[in-house]
Amino acid sequence: MKSKGFSLIETVLYIGLLAILLPSFVMVTLGYIQKSESVDPKIRMEEKAAVLFSEIQYELNQAQSIDVTGSSLATDDSSLVFVDAEGVSVTLSRTADAIAFIGGDQTIDRLERETASNVQWITDSDIDVNVWNVAVVRDSAGTLTGLNISMTMSVLNADGSPYRDISFSTDTTISLQPYTTEL
């Protein structure tokens, strides 16, 4: 006679195997979740920095002139003034901003793009820009050929605690076009 289903011994074996494998699976899953919580903000910062530098490089490659004397360069709180392709004066600077979080307001530094008619934030409200350093790069004849930009960012916690243990630093040099003049 053929019976269908599981015998008691098979059921006990399956439960035993499940009891051996389940804790390992749970530990691996929890480890992955904890790792992704710390990796995701870092990846987001790296992506934001890449997009930000791409936009800045595009604008500077189209710029008519760089106002070196009107900019505050080579400090951790630099401001960069340039005239864009349409002849509009643009200032990129690090500016303090009060952000509301669950635990209360926090003042952070964000990057701002300012023209005579428009002011816009170019970094997210949960990213604190700790360092924004712009320095000129010159060739042997003293001609302005590029700008070196260093930036350090930290991610804020949405629960109001000041910082995650996540920060990101980057340093890049943007070459300027030969037609870009120095003011």
Q: Could you outline the blueprint of secondary structure elements for this entry?
A:
Layout: H1 8-62, E1 65-72, E2 79-83, E3 89-101, E4 104-114, E5 119-121, E6 127-138, E7 144-156, E8 163-175, E9 181-182
Parallel strand pairs: 1-9
Antiparallel strand pairs: 1-2, 2-3, 3-4, 4-5, 6-7, 7-8
Could you give a short account of the major beta sheet?
A: 6 strands, mixed
Global Rg: 26 Å
In spatial order, strands of the major sheet run: 5-4-3-2-1-9
| Termini separation | 98 Å
- Provide mean pLDDT, rounded: 86
What is the count of β-strands?
9
Decide which structural class fits the backbone: alpha+beta
Organism: Candidatus Uhrbacteria bacterium CG10_big_fil_rev_8_21_14_0_10_48_16
Transmembrane segments: 12-33
Protein name: Prepilin-type N-terminal cleavage/methylation domain-containing protein
Keywords: Membrane, Transmembrane, Transmembrane helix
Task: Write a brief structural summary.
The chain is α+β, with helices and mostly antiparallel strands and 183 residues long. It is 30% helix and 44% strand. It has one domain (39-182).
Describe this protein's structure.
The chain is an alpha+beta fold and 183 residues long. The chain has one domain (39-182). The protein is 30% helix and 44% strand. The chain is built from one helix and nine strands; from the N terminus they run H-E-E-E-E-E-E-E-E-E. It has one helix at residues 8-62, and strands at residues 65-72, 79-83, 89-101, 104-114, 119-121, 127-138, 144-156, 163-175, 181-182. The strands form two sheets. Strands 5-4-3-2-1-9 form a six-stranded mixed beta sheet, with no helix packed on it. Strands 6-7-8 form a three-stranded antiparallel beta sheet, with helices on one face. A hairpin with a 2-residue loop joins strand 3 (89-101) and strand 4 (104-114). The model has no long low-confidence stretch (mean pLDDT 86).
